[in-house]
C-alpha cells in the first residue's frame, strides 16, 4: 500500500496511487478516467476479459442529470458524447392497434459500443493502461499489490461472489424473460407495444440510439415464454420469431442479435459495498430494471461519487465509507422505482383491458417517478384527455371527483385512514374523538374513518382503545357522527363528509401498553386473557400466549361483531369496515403463519377464510342494505411462508362475493419478524393488482403523502380511494389545502363558510425589492 502523501490542490491524504479496475464497462472506465484526471501520478490498470470492440446490448440512455455530472467532472468526455447523441421527446404507446403519444420527456441515447470507444480514447489519452482480452486476477490478489481495487465486473461479479460473506448480496431472479435485439432503422419515439398472443401477453420496448439504429427489447412472463416455445429456439430463431410477432412496430423489418440470449433480470442488493481496499460499483453493487434505463446511469454516477470521495476524504476507509453513504440512498430510491416499473410489466396482462388512455397513463407513471402533475407539465393535452376519460369535470383534479358506493356518495376520493388514538376510557369515545374526527371532516376529506373500534373488552389492543359493546358507547359515537354530518356546513347542495367505522378484535395482539409506553409490550398488570386462531404469541417469549378459539368462542365473537354492527348503524355511521388485517383476530385466521388449525377453520385458504366470512355475513345481515361495507386486508405478510399475492386476490374475491363494496388493501403487521419494503406508496401495488385483476373498487394506503400521488393513482386506475394517515395528523385540513394548491374551488372540496377566509395562503413578509426603473452607466 502507498504511504501518506500530499496531493497538489487537495488536503493531505493517504491517496491511492496504484489502482486496479476489474471490468471495462462504462462505470469502470469512467472511474479510471476521473481518478487519473484528479491525480496524473496514479498508475491505473483496467482489466477487461473481452476485446475492445466486443459489447453486449446496443443503445444506452443517459439522463440530463447524469450528463450534467459528466460535464462538470470531465468536459472532454462530455463534449465527445454530445456529438454522438440521438435526442427525442415523445413516447408512443400502442394499445390494441391504437397509438397514443405523450411528449415533452427528453431522452438522449447513443450506441454502447460508441460510448466505450469514447471512454477508451479518453483513458489512453490520460495514460490509463487498458488490458483487453485479459481475465483479471482475483480481487484478493489485486488488493495485495494495489492501493485501491474497483470491482466493476457486472451483475455476475466474481468479486462479489468471492467475498459474499462480507458484501452479503441478495440476488432476486424476476419473473420475466427478455432478449436484447436491434433494428436497422430509427424509431422516432420511445415505443412501447404489446402483443396479445394465444400464449399470453408480450411487450416490446424500443428506442433509437443512432440515426439508423434502434434498440429493441422483447419481454414476457416466464410461463408465456415457455408456452410460446422460445425455450426451444436458438438465438437466430428467437430473433426471427420476435420480428414476426412485432411486424407492425418494425414495419416488417428484420431484427438482429449480438450474443443475445434470453435472460431473466436479476435484482442485486448488497449489504456492504466495500471490503478492505476493494469496492463494488455499478451492477456488481446493485441493479435496477432496464425499463427505467438506469444501469449505465447508476454505474457512471457511482464512478463520479467514488472519485470525488477518494479526492475529498483524508484516507481510503473514509473515502469508501463516504462513497457508500452518498450513493446508497440514491440507489435505493432508484431500485424502488425500478421495482415498481418491472412489477407493472410483470403484471401487464392485468392492465390490457383498461381504456387506452388510462393504460398509457399507467405505463408512463408506473415507476411513481413520473406523476400526474409532472406529466401535465410535459404534455398538458395528453394529461387533459386522460382526465376527461376519467370523468373529471372541467377544472377538477381527479381527487375531487365524487364516488358512489351503494347509497353513499363521497364528495371526493380522500379518506382519513383509521388511526388508533389510545385515549378512550373503558372503550368510551370522548371529547378528543369528537375534535379529532370532526376536525378532519371540516378539513375536507370525503370519508373520515374511526380507529379500530373493538367489539368487546377482551378485543381491545390497549386499555385506551375505543369500543362498541354497549349502548352507551353507541350514544357517544352518535355525538361524533352528528357533528360530522351537521357540524361542517356546506353550500350549494354538495355532500358533506361521510364517516365510517372500522370494527375489529385484537386477537393475539391485545392486552398491551399504550403505543407511547411500549408498542406491543404486555401490560405490567391487569392483563386480560387473549384468544386467537391458534395458540401462538405475537412476540415469542414476551407476549401472552392466546387461547385457540373453540366452537363456543367462535360463535360468541361472531355475535359480538353483529351486535357492534347494529349499534354502529344506530349511531349513524355511513360505512362499515371489517378489520381483517394487521395480525388482529380475523387476520390471524387468514394468514398461514398465524393459523395452524387442523379443523374446518384452518388448512387451505378455503378453511382459513371460513371464520372471517362468517363474521362478515353476520355483520352484513345487521348493516343496512343501502350502506356500503369494506374489508381491510393485509395483502402480504412481508415474511416467508405468509399470504401470497395470489391468495391476497382470492381473499378479496371471496369478500366481494359475500357483498363487500370495496377492499381496503394494506399489508403486514401480521408477524413480528416481518421485513417490509418501505418506500413512497409502497403498498399501492397490492391494491393495484386486486383492482385490476378483479375489477373491484379498492382503497389504497401506505405512505401516500402528496395530492399529486393521489391524482396519479386514481388516473392510472390503481385505486378508487386513497387513505392517508400521517398527512392528516400533520395537517387536519390537508384536503382543503390540496384543493387550494391546485387552484380548485368546487363541490369536491367546499370550505366551510366560517373558514372561507383561510382558503388562500396567508401573505408573508415582503422579500422582493422595488423593480429598477433606470439603468445608469
UniProtKB/TrEMBL annotation:
Region (Disordered): 745-777
InterPro entries: Aldolase_TIM, FAD-bd, FAD/NAD-bd_sf, OxRdtase_FMN_N, YqjM-like
Domain NADH:flavin oxidoreductase/NADH oxidase N-terminal stretches: 399-739
One Pfam short name: FAD_binding_3
Domain FAD-binding: start-end pairs: 18-335
NCBIfam families per UniProt: PRK08255.1
Protein name, UniProt field: Bifunctional salicylyl-CoA 5-hydroxylase/oxidoreductase
Source organism: Streptomyces niveus (Streptomyces spheroides)
Amino acid at each position: 500500500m502507498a504511504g501518506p502523501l500530499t496531493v497538489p490542490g487537495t488536503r493531505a491524504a493517504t491517496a491511492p496511487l496504484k489502482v486496479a479496475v476489474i471490468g471495462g464497462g462504462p462505470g469502470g472506465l469512467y472511474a479510471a478516467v476521473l481518478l487519473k484526471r484528479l491525480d496524473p501520478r496514479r498508475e491505473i490498470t483496467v482489466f477487461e476479459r473481452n476485446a475492445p470492440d466486443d459489447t453486449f446490448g446496443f443503445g444506452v440512455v443517459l439522463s440530463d442529470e447524469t450528463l450534467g455530472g459528466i460535464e462538470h467532472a470531465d468536459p472532454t468526455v462530455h463534449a465527445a458524447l454530445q456529438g454522438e447523441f440521438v435526442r427525442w421527446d415523445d413516447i408512443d404507446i400502442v394499445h390494441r392497434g391504437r397509438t397514443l403519444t405523450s411528449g415533452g420527456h427528453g431522452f438522449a441515447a447513443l450506441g454502447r459500443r460508441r460510448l466505450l470507444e469514447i471512454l477508451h480514447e479518453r483513458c489512453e489519452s490520460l495514460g490509463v493502461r487498458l488490458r483487453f482480452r485479459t481475465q483479471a486476477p482475483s480481487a484478493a490478489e489485486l488488493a495485495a499489490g494495489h492501493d485501491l481495487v474497483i470491482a466493476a465486473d457486472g451483475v455476475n461479479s466474481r468479486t462479489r461472489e468471492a467475498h459474499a460473506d462480507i458484501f452479503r448480496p441478495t440476488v432476486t431472479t424476476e419473473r420475466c424473460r427478455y432478449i436484447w435485439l436491434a433494428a436497422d432503422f430509427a424509431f422516432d419515439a420511445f415505443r412501447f407495444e404489446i402483443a396479445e398472443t394465444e400464449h399470453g401477453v408480450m411487450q416490446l420496448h424500443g428506442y433509437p440510439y443512432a440515426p439508423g439504429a434502434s434498440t429493441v427489447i422483447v419481454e414476457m412472463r416466464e410461463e408465456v415464454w415457455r408456452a410460446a416455445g422460445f425455450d426451444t429456439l436458438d438465438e437466430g430463431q428467437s430473433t426471427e420469431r420476435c420480428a414476426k410477432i412485432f411486424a407492425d412496430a418494425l414495419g416488417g423489418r428484420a431484427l438482429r442479435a449480438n450474443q443475445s440470449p434470453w435472460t431473466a433480470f436479476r435484482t442485486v442488493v448488497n449489504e456492504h459495498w466495500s471490503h478492505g481496499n476493494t469496492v463494488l460499483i455499478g451492477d456488481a453493487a446493485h441493479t435496477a430494471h432496464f425499463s427505467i434505463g438506469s444501469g449505465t446511469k447508476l454505474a457512471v454516477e457511482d464512478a463520479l461519487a467514488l472519485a470525488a470521495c477518494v479526492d475529498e476524504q483524508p484516507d481510503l476507509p473514509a473515502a469508501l465509507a463516504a462513497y457508500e453513504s452518498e450513493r446508497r440512498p440514491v440507489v435505493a430510491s432508484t431500485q424502488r422505482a425500478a421495482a415498481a416499473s418491472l412489477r407493472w410489466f410483470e403484471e401487464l396482462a392485468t392492465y390490457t383491458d383498461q381504456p387506452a388512455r388510462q393504460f398509457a397513463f399507467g405505463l408512463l407513471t408506473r415507476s411513481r417517478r413520473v406523476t400526474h402533475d409532472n406529466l401535465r407539465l410535459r404534455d398538458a393535452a395528453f394529461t387533459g384527455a386522460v382526465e376527461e376519460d376519467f370523468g373529471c369535470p372541467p377544472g377538477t383534479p381527479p381527487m375531487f371527483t365524487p364516488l358512489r358506493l351503494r347509497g353513499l356518495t363521497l364528495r371526493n376520493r380522500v379518506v382519513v385512514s383509521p388511526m388508533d388514538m389510545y385515549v378512550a376510557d373503558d372503550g368510551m369515545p370522548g371529547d378528543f374523538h369528537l375534535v379529532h374526527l370532526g376536525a378532519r371532516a371540516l378539513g375536507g376529506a370525503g370519508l373520515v374513518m374511526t380507529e379500530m373500534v373493538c367489539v368487546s373488552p377482551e378485543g381491545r389492543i390497549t386499555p385506551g382503545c375505543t369500543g362498541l359493546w354497549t349502548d352507551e358507547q353507541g350514544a357517544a359515537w352518535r355525538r361524533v357522527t352528528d357533528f360530522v354530518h351537521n357540524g361542517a356546513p356546506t353550500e350549494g347542495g354538495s355532500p358533506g363528509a361521510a364517516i365510517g367505522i372500522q370494527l375489529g378484535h385484537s386477537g393475539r395482539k391485545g392486552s398491551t401498553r399504550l403505543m407511547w409506553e411500549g408498542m406491543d409490550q404486555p401490560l405490567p398488570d391487569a392483563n386480560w386473557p387473549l384468544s386467537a386462531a391458534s395458540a401462538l404469541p405475537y412476540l415469542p417469549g414476551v407476549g401472552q400466549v392466546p387461547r385457540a378459539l373453540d366452537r363456543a368462542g367462535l360463535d360468541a365473537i361472531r355475535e359480538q361483531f353483529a351486535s357492534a354492527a347494529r349499534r354502529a348503524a344506530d349511531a349513524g355511521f355511513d360505512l362499515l369496515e371489517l378489520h381483517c388485517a394487521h395480525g388482529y383476530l380475523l387476520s390471524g385466521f387468514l394468514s398461514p403463519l398465524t393459523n395452524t388449525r387442523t379443523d374446518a377453520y384452518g388448512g387451505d385458504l378455503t378453511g382459513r377464510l371460513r371464520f372471517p366470512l362468517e363474521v362478515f355475513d353476520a355483520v352484513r345481515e345487521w348493516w343496512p342494505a343501502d350502506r356500503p361495507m369494506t374489508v381491510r386486508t393485509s395483502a402480504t405478510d412481508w415474511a416467508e411462508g405468509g399470504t401470497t399475492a395470489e391468495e391476497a386476490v382470492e381473499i378479496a374475491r371471496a369478500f366481494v362475493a359475500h357483498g363487500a363494496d370495496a377492499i381496503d388493501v394494506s399489508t403486514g403487521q401480521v408477524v413480528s419478524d416481518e421485513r417490509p419494503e418501505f418506500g413512497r406508496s409502497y403498498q399501492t401495488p397490492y391494491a393495484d393488482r386486486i383492482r385490476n385483476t378483479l375489477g373491484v373498487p379498492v382503497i389504497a394506503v401506505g405512505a401516500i403523502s402528496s395530492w399529486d400521488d393521489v391524482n396519479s393513482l386514481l388516473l392510472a386506475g390503481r385505486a378508487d380511494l386513497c387513505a392517508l394517515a400521517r398527512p392528516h395528523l400533520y395537517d387536519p385540513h390537508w384536503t382543503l389545502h390540496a384543493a387550494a394548491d391546485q387552484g380548485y374551488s368546487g363541490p369536491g372540496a367546499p370550505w366551510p363558510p366560517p373558514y372561507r377566509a383561510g382558503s388562500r395562503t396567508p401573505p408573508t413578509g415582503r422579500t422582493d425589492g422595488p423593480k429598477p426603473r433606470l439603468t445608469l452607466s
